[in-house]
Amino acid sequence: MSIPSVIGWKLNKVEIINESAMVIAISIC
Q1: pLDDT per residue as tens, the chain (29 positions)
Q2: How far is residue 14's CA from residue 22's CA, in Å, rounded to a whole number?
């Protein structure tokens, strides 16, 4: 794996975590 793809994969995981956290926060409210 090249470094740029690893960085993109990590950024993608962060986006997925942020989206799911927002969905959870909305469903709690």
Answers
A1: 677 888 888 989 999 999 999 999 999 87
A2: 12
CB burial string 13-22: b at 16+ within 10 A, e below? eeeeeeeeee
The tokens describing 25, both together, are 């926060």
Q: CA 24 to CA 18: how far, in whole Å?
A: 10
Instruction: Estimate the share of the chain in helix, then strand, then coil, as percent rounded to the nearest 5.
Output: 90, 0, 10
Q: What are the φ/ψ torsions at residue 2 (nearest 5 degrees)?
A: -85, 160
